[in-house]
């Protein structure tokens, strides 16, 4: 009975949700890490660190789900995409490892406290930049013959992918500023609002440039967005995005505490939706659709059973951890 069902849409939804949850959750703590060294003093840096200390490592669970899910449910796509973006993925993993080491050692190696502080910020920035490289390379597509990647491992480093790397850093910075506005108050919250404005400007410019650059580089994407009647049906996407930018600007300049973070998440949702519209139903752009790259129905069904058991547990644990550590961060309690 299970094998008679088309499980590709289910696995597509699971991977889409997993990737978005990683971007949203690990995105804001990477953003906090990038903003960390800009904090005005050591006490402020301690509060910034304590704002993510209880939850930052759990956020990376969703990265594992995305990678393992892609391998298990869409092995053809995994076999093409991973070799094509090998170096940025390697940089990302090394940066995440060093970031974790720096996080722990800054509390235990007082003599090199400044070094580990800078290492934590640098690891956060490099991880965000590498993820943006992967995104840009994915949007541009890969050199494929048959079912194999035949390009160079350095093909992923293009002006477009480098730009998307910088763009994602601004986007994560906006999420990080929004999180700090929620978790702090007083002068530190005002500082987060100021940095949030800079990150918002960078994010808005990046969204505009990518939205223009992508259809100019691909006639198929241009036809999807600008041919009639698609241009009418898809018009709400850029309009809602522009409205979210204006709302984020207003929220950052007023007393709103949850508005900046919510607006930042909204901008990521709209950007995510825009990429999906541009590439659907391809999972390897211009080569393989989701169904063509999918594993056998029996494999999908077997893996789905375990996933449907574990996924709610992970969601409940994640939600519970955020609930337990809700509220403003304080200097007298935190990570030890």
Verbal overview:
This protein has 336 residues and is an all-alpha fold. The chain is built from 14 helices and four strands. The protein has a two-stranded antiparallel ribbon. Strand 1 (144-145) and strand 2 (148-149) form a beta hairpin. Helix 3 (61-73) crosses helix 4.
Explain briefly what this protein structure is.
With 336 residues, the chain is mostly helical.
* Low-confidence blocks of residues: none
Helical/strand content category: mainly alpha
Number of domains: 1
Question: Could you give a short account of the major beta sheet?
Answer: 2 strands, antiparallel
Number of strands: 4
* Major β-sheet strand ordering: 1-2
Can you give the mean pLDDT?
A: 89
- Proportion of β residues? under 5%
Helix-residue proportion? over 70%
Q: What general outline do the C-alpha atoms trace?
A: globular
Distance between the termini: 51 Å
Radius of gyration from the alpha-carbon trace, in angstroms? 20 Å
Number of helices: 14
What are the secondary-structure elements, in order, as H or E?
HHHHHHEEHHHHHHEEHH
């Amino acid at each position: 009975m299970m094998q008679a069902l088309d499980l590709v849409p289910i696995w597509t939804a699971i991977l889409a949700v997993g990737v978005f949850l990683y971007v949203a959750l690990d995105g804001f703590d990477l953003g906090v890490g990038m903003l960390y060294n800009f904090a005005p003093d050591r006490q402020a840096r301690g509060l910034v660190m304590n704002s993510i200390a209880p939850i930052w490592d759990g956020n990376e669970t969703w990265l594992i789900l995305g990678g393992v899910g892609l391998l298990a449910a869409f092995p053809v796509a995994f076999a093409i995409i991973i070799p094509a973006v090998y170096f940025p993925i390697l940089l990302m993993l090394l940066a995440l490892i060093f970031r974790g080491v720096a996080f722990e050692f800054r509390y235990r190696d007082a003599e090199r406290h400044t070094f580990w502080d800078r290492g934590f910020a640098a690891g956060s920035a490099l991880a965000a930049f590498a993820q943006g490289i992967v995104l840009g390379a994915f949007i541009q597509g890969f050199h494929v013959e048959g079912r194999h990647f035949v390009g160079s491992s350095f093909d992923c480093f293009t002006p477009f992918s480098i730009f998307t790397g910088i763009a994602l850093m601004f986007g994560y910075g906006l999420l990080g500023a929004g999180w700090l506005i929620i978790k702090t108050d007083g002068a530190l919250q005002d500082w987060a609002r100021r940095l949030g404005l800079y990150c918002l400007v960078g994010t808005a410019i990046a969204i505009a440039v990518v939205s223009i650059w992508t259809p100019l580089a691909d006639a198929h994407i241009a036809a999807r967005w600008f041919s009639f009647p698609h241009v009418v049906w898809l018009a709400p996407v850029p309009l809602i995005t522009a409205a979210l930018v204006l709302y984020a600007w207003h929220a950052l300049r007023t007393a709103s505490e949850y508005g900046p973070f919510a607006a930042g998440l909204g901008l990521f949702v709209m950007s995510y939706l825009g990429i999906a519209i541009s590439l659907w139903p391809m999972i390897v752009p211009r080569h393989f659709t989701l169904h063509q790259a999918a594993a056998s129905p029996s494999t999908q069904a077997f893996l789905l059973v375990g996933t449907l058991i574990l996924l709610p547990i992970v969601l409940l644990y994640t939600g519970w951890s955020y609930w337990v550590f809700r509220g403003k961060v304080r200097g007298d309690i935190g990570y030890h």
